[in-house]
Each structure stands twice: as structure tokens, then as C-alpha cells.
What we know:
Helix content: 10-25%
Order of helices and strands: EEEHEEEEEEEEEE
Radius of gyration: 43 Å
CATH architecture of the domain at 87-185: 6 Propeller
Shape: rod-shaped
Amino acid sequence: METVARRGxxxxxxxxxxxxxxxxxxxxxxxxxPKRWLLPVALAVLLAGVLLGWGIAHWRRQSAQATxxxxxxxxxxxxxEENPVLGAAISPDGKYLAFADxxxxxxxxxxxxxxxxxxxxxxxxxxxxxxxPDGSHLVATWVEGPTSPxxxxxxxxMGGAPRKLxxxxxxxxxxxxxxxxxxxxGPKPPRRCG
Length: 194
């Protein structure tokens, strides 16, 4: 055995009659060099950052290229000035327009343009205001007499007697399941212009 400076010991021993030299390695690794795992981790983080940046840029480009929704106006009635539409409501499925003018209440097929009078009792001059979700009933407003307030009525588009829902009600909105109606109670609010 021989001492080697700054390295440790060196063993000198014969193996099967042949002399061999074995130099031991130090017991601990030097701490001055970089860790072997640091480079793969750094590369993985760099790759993840590049992929994330590319993904964000691609998403923004796709969002910017999205076609904007174009709203198209379409005239549904052709009433003259002397007989204006007094009120109207579009059915939940978007296929029908219920409307009223001075001559009566009507149901118009939006795509085909076919228009029919609503089968309402004589003298019942209701103005369609909202649809029930079933698409076969309307909420209409009507004034029963010259001193009566507006009242809300349920009417079937198939005909039959309308049913009064409430006195002194206007501007109805039917809940999505048809179980409730929101409305304004009291005198008619002044009309806003512009």
C-alpha cells in the first residue's frame, strides 16, 4: 500500500502471481461542477415555455380570425302608417309572429309569410305581448272598458275563450318553464323616444 498525495491510497498486491495496481476512487464526488440532472430539467422547462407561447399565439390568431356575427334586419309586417302594429311577439321557436293592429290580431309564419287571423271572441281586441314556452298560448293585454286598466289574458292560438290572468298588468314576460309571469303593475309608463 502506498499513499498518493491528494488522492488517497494505492494498493499494490499480486493477483495470481501477477502484480497489479489498483487505484481507489475518492469516496465523495466533487461539488464544484454542475449537477448532471440540471441540464435535462432546464431543457424541459425551456421546451414547455416555447410550446405554451406557441399555443397562446395560435389561440389569439384563431380568435382574431373568427367571423363576427352579422345581425340582419328583416321586416316582418307591412302595415301602412294609418294602421300601425300595436304590439307583437315572436314564438319561442322563432317560426311565428303574433301581432295586432287596429283591424285585429294575427298570426304570421315568419319564413313563409302566410298570415291568419287569430280566432278570438268578437270584441276581444287583445294585443299579443308574450308567448308561453309551449308555443300554443299567448299572454295578451286588453282594456275591457273605457275606464278599465290594462289587464293580462291567456289566449290559445288555436281558438277558444281567453282567460283573464290579472287586472292592472302590462309588459308580461313568461318564465322558461311557463309556470310564472313577470309583469308591470300600475299605469302605463310614458314612452321614451330615442
